[in-house]
Amino acid sequence: MSWDESVITHYPNYNILNLADEWDSYTKEIVLKRLGPFSAPEYFSEWETSTLKAIVKNIVFDNRDNIIDWIVFHLDSKMTSEIGENQRKIGIPPEDVLVREGISVIDRIARSKFAKSFTDLEEDEQFKIISSLQLGQLPPIREWSRIPQKDLFSKFLLEIVAAYYSHPEVWSEIGYGGPAYPRGYVRTEYGLTDPWEARGDGK
């Protein structure tokens, strides 16, 4: 298994950034920051960052460094944010602990199963570990009593996918029109689009 660097999109000529001047200054600043460059992680170590990037690639199935860097920056910022979690199951550790210890235990599984770090595995070997994590089928070890497999995968999935689909480049690929403020959407009826929205005919 290997990831193709090419992008398949129904909107090859659509670029959401061409509409940036339509946004208010605050919105524009927030969105453009997602393009980088990004500061070095504050919460994750260099080793944790490399491992996290490999995990991210297996979840979004995307190899583009600029998007992966944004996702890792988003996660690192969330781990150091003073804003608390929305909700958490009883018995599940705080998200910063869950993610950090989860990265460590995934690497431990890789070393015990393949005698290599997670980052040194082949793509198909990495994918086997992540897909087994999703199903809760990784080898039973003591750490899983504190870091439940399925809850760890759900946390990764929630945060990683949310960050992935907040990147302007991905918006363009899926034909998302971006922030509606202050212009707003006018043609809201089913099947109609505003002139500035993406169309599936390549325009």
Features:
203 residues; 7 helices
Work out the helicity level.
Answer: 40-55%
C-alpha termini separation: 33 Å
The main β sheet shows up as:
none
Radius of gyration: 19 Å
Question: What are the low-pLDDT stretches, counting only 5+ consecutive residues below 50?
Answer: none
Proportion of beta-strand residues: under 5%
Label the overall shape: elongated
Layout of secondary structure:
Layout: H1 25-33, H2 46-60, H3 65-80, H4 95-114, H5 123-135, H6 149-164, H7 168-174
Helix pairs in contact: 2-3, 2-4, 2-5, 3-6, 4-5, 4-6, 5-6
Describe the structure.
- The mean pLDDT is 88.
- By secondary structure, this protein is an all-alpha fold.
- The protein has helices at residues 25-33, 46-60, 65-80, 95-114, 123-135, 149-164, 168-174.
- The protein has seven helices and no strands.
